[in-house]
Amino acid sequence: MTGVPEAQAGPDELVFPFSGSSYRGPAPEYADLRAQCPVARVKTDGGVDAWLLSRYDDVREGLADPRLGRAATVAPNAPRIGGAMTSTPEMIISMDAPEHSRLRKLAAGPFTARRIEQLRPNINRIADELLDELATRTGPVDLVREFTLPMPLRVIGELLGAPMEVLELFAVNAREFVTVDDQVEGGESRTGLNKLYEAMVAVVADKRANPADDVLSGLIAARDEGDRLNEEELVTFAFTLIGAGFDTTASQLANSVLALISHHPDQWRWLAEDRSRIPAAVEELLRHVNLFSTDTAGNPRIALEDVEIGGVKIAAGDAVVLSITSANRDASVFPDPDRLDLAREHNPHLSFGHGMHLCIGKQLTRLELAIAIDGLVRRFPNLRLAVPEDELQWHLGEINHSLAGLPVVW
């Protein structure tokens, strides 16, 4: 790697994660980093230095490079990287190949595009039941409590075959599951993980004794050349799917509705005029409306060997942070990237990741968002905020920008 610079330091005052991120977009520092220092050495509030990648091509390359490992970030005595979400070595999001590949192959069957499309009637039914109830209400209604949270929770519950009392436990503890940098034993997120794990042990045991036509029963029965998921893998995979499968979708949906009715009401009405525009609009909302509070998916990497990205040498053992939200605002890929363009045709956003950790539930999320937005614009074309936006409350300290409530009227 002759001629490759050994370091490319970012501005001294920058400490990751930056403070200026919001659901409306990444922290403003990223625009300068993309232009001047796209592979930057920065300090993190976890106490270690890390490489921060901000340009689309570099982030996409980093997401796909197996030399940037996840398992090393959750190993004993791993460096504490600022902005990281709690995860454990047993979770699929913490694994590298071949362990990750094995689990994904066993679990991928229920999440193919064809299988997800077969869920459309059930998802439509769940959305319509919630919207029917919403339509009977007068006065301000909290859209988070009444729709954007219960809809994906019920969908993932029916998909997996999890009982309502377990879903309610997840709804309570999901706030702890997605807490940033609370990884010490006895911390809230660790307590939340333990509660969820215990609940799923009982659910998996019941499914093993009484199999049904659902994903959990399918995971229990799944085999690949004689291989199958063991008990710990089943339980961990199940609560990972529920935790990720409803909270991220619920937050993305609420944030997207807020962006449209508060800042782009003309585009909300544009969707109501022709609902065939919604699938393309969903892709643009995924790109433009920022789910990630640290502008990343919360999953840093460790270089397992020397790697060159963006003309910069990253040494083995170095921490690497990939800014997906910044990549989604790269003007070299997305013309006029800071504009919400619901008719954008070329939209290869990285909101679901890339490479081996590409989100297994991406098609389910797309379908849920499309059905939810379709139902809302059809039933409530005049939906608007019931309070000034600066009075809205957000859950703080989480990996997602997550609204505590969204009071609306129509």
UniProtKB/TrEMBL annotation:
Stored PROSITE patterns: CYTOCHROME_P450 (PS00086)
Alphabetical list of CDD domains matching this protein: Cyp158A-like
Gene3D superfamilies: Cytochrome P450
UniProt keyword terms in alphabetical order: Heme, Iron, Metal-binding, Monooxygenase, Oxidoreductase
Keyword Oxidoreductase listed: yes
Any Pfam family hit: p450
Alphabetical list of InterPro entries matching this protein: Cyt_P450, Cyt_P450_B, Cyt_P450_CS, Cyt_P450_sf
Keyword Iron attached: yes
Family listed: Belongs to the cytochrome P450 family.
Stated name of the protein: Cytochrome P450
